[in-house]
Amino acid sequence: MTTEELDLANKAGVPARTDEGPVQYVNELTTLNLGPTHPATHGIFQNILQMDGEKIVSGEQTIGYIHRAFEKIAERRPFYQITTLTDRMNYCSSPINNMGWHMTVEKLLGIEVPKRAQYIRVIMMELARIADHLVCNGILGVDTGALTGFVYLFEEREKIYEIYEEMCGARLTTNMGRIGGMERDLSAEAIRKIKKFLAEFPKVLREFESLLNRNRIFMDRIVGVGGISAERALSYGFTGPNLRAAGVDYDVRVMNPYSSYEDFEFDIPVGQSGDTFDRYMVRNEEIWQSLRIIEQAINNLPEGSHFADAPQYYLPPKQEVYKNMEALIYHFKIVMGEIDAPVGEVYHAVEGGNGELGFYLISDGGRAPYRLHFRRPCFIYYQAYPEMCKGATLSDAIVIMSSMNVIAGELDA
Amino acid sequence: MLTNEEVAQDIIRKYENAVSEFDDPFGLLTFTTNRETIISLLEYLRDHAAFRINFLTDITAIHYPDSPDREYCVVYHAHSLVQNFRVRIKVYLTEADLHIPTATSLYACANWMERETFDLFGVIFDGHPNLRRILNMDEMDYFPMRKEYPLEDSTRQDKIDALFGR
Known about the structure:
The structure holds two protein chains of two kinds. By secondary structure, chain A is mainly alpha-helical. Chain A folds into two domains: about 1-25, no CATH class; about 70-410, Orthogonal Bundle (Cytochrome-c3 Hydrogenase, chain B), CATH 1.10.645.10. Chain A contains 18 helices and eight strands. Chain A starts with a helix and ends with a helix. Chain B has one domain: Beta Polymerase, domain 2 (2-Layer Sandwich), CATH 3.30.460.80. In chain B, strands 1-2-5-4-3 form a five-stranded mixed beta sheet. A two-stranded parallel ribbon of chain B has the order 6-7. The longest helix of chain B is centred in the first third of the chain and has 12 residues, at about 5-15.
């Protein structure tokens, strides 16, 4: 069949006969808007897909719908106020963002945080990672038509949020901890809740796994869908579970340990083909590893203070402020932003729910950062989406997006 | 385990006068190069048999309005996943000539990083396949992360910097 004939058939939208075999339908390309507000995007961003029938030929993303200029705002805020900005990036695992930021500032200020505070941080960060992965895997189930697992897991996520509440009073945008340690120690109630969670959650997770892991329908939908090679994944700047699913065992917690991660024993799960199924399985296994870490941390919780002895930077406890002159002075100075940070340039990375979450901070010696840049893992790996869903069907594109765990808040910052 | 000294010496041997200002704030090797060298340097580090600094972590920019002829600084963070070695490379640009070659031919992820830097600072990456705004709307006629654009509405009378300790 010549090109002219194909063109003609295209225009007419009629079945065209080719030399090799039976009737082939040749269609005009259709442009399809997936988003900005589509239930499957789980956030506000748009994908303009060029479709040949059910097959995706190419795609282009439009992002920035919830861009809030955090980097600009941060240039006018004292350091402790920037914590609330980091909450709103990956809002599925806010404590990791909060503590990543605190650790960045501590690195700049040269504050050594006591072991106990580091362990509490590890516990909260791993709980956040579990919550993050639960959302991603649960929703992957929903996008393939299995609502049960999702609802079941959200009950457990609720329990994690109750632990957050015990630690900081908030649930979603946690603003947890302070520069120099934690705002409060683990209370008896918090320890009880964490231990209860550790005892009860594995049963639920096993049940969730038995619902999906070897489920014929689920596997048919996701095995071999949206694969990416390790080489391409690295070129695209993948980090976190998505990179590990492609077979690269890069984990910031192991490679550049922070907050005493070197004290804990855990494995890095890796996949092979980098497809949706591998991403799902890697996240699932990471939940088990996180449980291991929390168990070790809570059983070996060191004695001592939950904050560093750095009165100039650590917001003093309220009781102290009312009774103690020095505490009142420091409280006032910190809140009014009268304490200058030293000049310096820091890059600090933590393993966020989606990968390497980096903070590039430049301080010119003032009360606020001169420049603060967030390395947001979502923003970087979401570029690969058109390449990953090229040639796939629309329903595949949905599960690929879902399994990449693109969080709009982190995407746009 | 690579040391900063080792990598720095190797880069100086290869690029001589094109690299300068070696430093290691908080243990991270930092140095400055020029825009003619940056792409070849990134490629050299990526393909180097021993270093294998083959992961581009981040690209961003900084605005220094008060330093003449070095108003903009484009910062590259790269990482060797094999050697666990990080490096930070800076390129200073003048306000009048904000051009720098693109790194998209080396790393696919540079695409959006450069678009973001263009969007926020107006740095033009020559050879970029699709250099459009990414976070802000296309109609925007300024670059918001430049220091001359105030964060707050300048017409407001009630927000006096002195009262907020600024």
